[in-house]
From TrEMBL:
One Gene Ontology term of the molecular function aspect: hydrolase activity
Taxonomic source organism: Nocardioides mangrovicus
Signal among keywords: no
Gene3D superfamilies with a match to the protein in the record: P-loop containing nucleotide triphosphate hydrolases (3.40.50.300)
Full protein name: DEAD/DEAH box helicase
GO CC terms in record: cytosol
Disordered: annotated span: 1-23, 509-537, 555-579
Keyword flag Nucleotide-binding: yes
Amino acid sequence: MTGEDQPLDASSGGPAPVDLSPAWPERAAWGTAGSLRAWQSAALTRYFDGENRDFLAVATPGAGKTTFALTVANELLARRVIDKVTVVAPTEHLKTQWAQAAERVGIPLDPAYAGRAGRTSKDFVGIAVTYAGVAANPLALRIRTERSKTLVILDEVHHAGDALSWGEAVREAFEPARRRLCLTGTPFRSDVNPIPFVRYEPGADGVPRSAADYTYGYGHALADHVVRPVLFLAYSGTMSWRTRAGDEVAARLGEPLTKDMTAQALRTALDPHGSWVPSVLAAADRRLSEVRRHVPDAGGLVIAGDQDSARAYAKLLAEVAGEKPVVVLSDEKTASKRIAEFTDGDQRWMVAVRMVSEGVDVPRLAVGVYATTISTPLFFAQAVGRFVRARARGETASVFVPSVPGLLGFASEMELERDHVLGRTVRDEDDIFAAEKDLLAAAEQTQTEPEESLPFEALGSDATFDHVLYEGAQFGHEGEVHVGSEEEMDFLGIPGLLEADQVRDLLRQRQSDRARKRRDEQTGAPEPSVREPATHERLSVLRRELNSLVAAWHHRTGQPHGVTHNTLRKELGGPPSAVASEVQLEQRIERIRDWARGA
């Protein structure tokens, strides 16, 4: 019985499930990967068991969404459920990247399709377009979709909510599609624009939230060694600037400040004419050199906020690294070519403005510098996602960030799974404007450069190493740690190939060793050649790590610190942390990590 003759599934309008072809589950679509990962196999089972017309797969960046989607497409083509494929991507570069990946699996796509042209060559099985291209001519794409049994793959589907006009265009163009496969690594948005073809279901509070058909979060991918663990290296420093009123202001990056002062301090730090950026770029280059001792082709990426800054950062990097970086500006015709050359080459650094913040696959990226004032959780997750793709077990990503509370909060919530929330609840009758306040706050978060309305003049900056954030816990040294010091190198010099638990143990050890050395220097005691940390030292390190994790959990959930400590004691037993044993503290640390991973 051919695919054309297969009985229809009444619930979906598609053919009823049949035996799958040899392409699955034994191996992925030919040309994408040697075999399917466990999550891809499980997601395929979910997809073909349900036979739903619409399917939303949420998988963390670097997990392999492209392989999953192309395996679905191959299977549907083999079953003759579809005969055409349309891929919608956020950018021109990603559109081309999809066409190249699909070509390798025997699904030739036309990335140069334009609605005005109408038909494409018979050599193509489908087309690849951008969301902007869909919005420009949704009617032409609707006609094309109606003419064939089409699978539409909506990559990073949250972009369909970027504007109401985009969402309406996507809905109009692809409403007639036989199947729609929505993909995203970051399903949450800061606004309330509904995403087309995504199912929303009311939560416990009655507020509609996006409902994924399959979710594979960063925590699970990390446990499966599919993605790299991330070391966030936070840098602080003193910033000085002059306000529009002529007042000179000085503040330390990361200290409690007003929203306006935090924004101005961050902009001062990112000013290429100050000392903060050159110092952090030099530290990042030293980190890259350490990683390249174990991973010779490892590359670095600086994410800049605008083109002028990107060019200035590139000039600074050339002086630091002794090699000109690749500069990628989105409005240049050669941007995609430069990314491809960097991907296949061994250059040390690339500097880009947003273009490499989402979806672009450069697996050798291992060190990043977050040098933009954009501070939404969506953009931050997309940016960090460029560094987490694992090629070999033991690789670790390192991302340098300004010591700003918002960014550090996002970093501590890497393992948190979010849904897209369409509304807010009124907390009580006395707070009837709560929903409106929340929506206004969300709208403010969506602004690309929220501080542009705050005129000021950057006067100067310096940089100091603050701490490392790893698995939600902070590691650092007491006192001010200067750039280029031995204390900083304790963390910049972490080997480039280590298992996650080895990274954690090494961070603890270096923190403990430095604290002991400092105490010995202060007391004048001779430094012993080697000794194991004393019991009280080990307990002190563990209690500090536990308290850091509890603080991160409070930031994520709002749950008071005392409640979290009591819950851990209730689940695991034992006395308060101050008198708990080493084993009990380690058990509590692992339990709160399990909570963060959703285990």
